[in-house]
Write a structure and sequence with these properties.
eight-stranded mixed sheet, 8 helices, 17 strands, 29% strand
């Protein structure tokens, strides 16, 4: 069976699909029409299904211990649960990524016309894992740092701090979001400024403590920004510092940049929450929206974008209504899709060329 391995997206980078003599000819194949053919070994199973967050696509019993079927999960990056007799099973013969606070199987179905994250024919930058100690959490934290292919330590670069969503980690924007690939191609085409992109784990918690949603903005300013500015040749004024994020990361961006307009000149909210999605009572960062002149002086770009089918679209419309009462202008765009990486890839592709102009 023909199988496609998603380079630099999955946990494994080696296209090894097991031993058919032992495990059977199992795996997946993306068809030309965008559907995905699955063939799964499930001995003694009564039922096998692909579960796309509650929508079940049953597979049919085939020869021997195999189950198979052709499923339309939609185009783009699609997580799913493999359900065998009602239990979630992580299959080693399907691509494995990280989301929903756990390893997840997924497929990445090509989107016609969206080849701006391809690997071919462009110089590629590097992504480096860095460890830094956080005085806020009391332990070492991890960030990934993208540097462009033309990186020169004798130059100084602007910085974008780019955050993932709830249930993900610092790897999301590189593996699922393809931000390095996208930046490589935009740079090669001369459509964006050279920059360093920093991606940290926003699911912060104190050592042996419960996760606290307010920790990351404090950790970013207290620990991560100083670490990057001491380790990398970066420009340190606000007009060369940006922050953006998706979903939970968008709220972290809103809270951080509106609370500290003296530190950030650009902000991007993807599937973006101006206010906490859990409807917090106290939102002091929103006070800046009452001062139109200060807001205009503080940001060259304040960007909001979301998918037209996003499950939180009503919350974004509530933010629209709030902004209609404020003397500020924000750039707002929509893309086809839901609350998923297909939309967030479009957001970052749209946003990067706006920075540091």
């Amino acid at each position: 069976m023909k199988q496609q391995w998603p380079l630099d997206t999955a946990v494994s980078f080696d296209p090894y699909f097991g031993e058919p003599d032992r495990d059977g000819d199992q795996g997946y194949e993306i068809r030309d029409d965008g559907t995905v053919f699955f063939r799964i070994k499930a001995p003694n199973a009564r039922e096998v299904a692909i579960d796309q967050f509650g929508t079940l696509f049953p597979l049919a019993k085939a020869d021997g211990e195999m189950w198979e079927g052709c499923v339309d999960l939609g185009r783009g990056f699609k997580y799913f649960f493999l359900k065998i007799d009602g239990a979630d099973v992580l299959n080693p013969y399907l691509p494995i990524g990280y989301g929903c606070c756990r390893p997840m199987n997924f497929v990445d179905v090509p989107v016609p016309g969206e080849d701006w994250d391809g690997l071919e024919d462009v110089p590629h930058g590097a992504v480096t894992r860095q460890y830094y100690f956080s005085t806020v959490t009391g332990k070492h934290e991890i960030c990934l740092v993208y540097t462009p292919a033309s990186f020169d330590p004798s130059k100084r670069y602007p910085v974008l701090y780019l955050q993932h969503g709830y249930g993900e980690n610092e790897t999301g924007w590189v593996y699922q979001g393809h931000v390095g690939r996208i930046a490589d191609r935009l740079l090669h085409a001369g459509e964006m400024a050279e920059m360093i992109i920093v991606m940290a784990n926003g699911m912060a918690k104190r050592d042996r403590g419960e996760r606290e949603f307010e920790l990351f903005p404090n950790m970013l300013l207290t620990d991560l920004v100083p670490f990057i500015e001491a380790r990398y040749p970066v420009l340190t004024d606000k007009w060369h510092r940006a922050m953006a994020g998706l979903s939970m990361g968008s709220y972290q961006t809103s809270r951080t940049t509106l609370s500290h307009p003296e530190l950030f000149g650009y902000a991007g909210l993807f599937s973006g929450f101006l206010r906490a999605p859990w409807r917090a009572d106290d939102e002091p960062h929103l006070k800046l929206l009452d001062d139109g002149a200060q807001f205009a002086d503080s940001f060259k770009v304040f960007y909001r974008a979301m998918g037209t089918e996003d499950q939180f679209f009503d919350r974004f419309e509530e933010d629209d209504a709030l902004l209609a009462t404020k003397p500020v202008n924000m750039l707002r765009r929509t893309f086809p899709g839901g609350h998923d990486w297909s939309v967030w890839r479009r957001c970052i592709h749209d946003f990067l060329p706006m920075l540091f102009k």
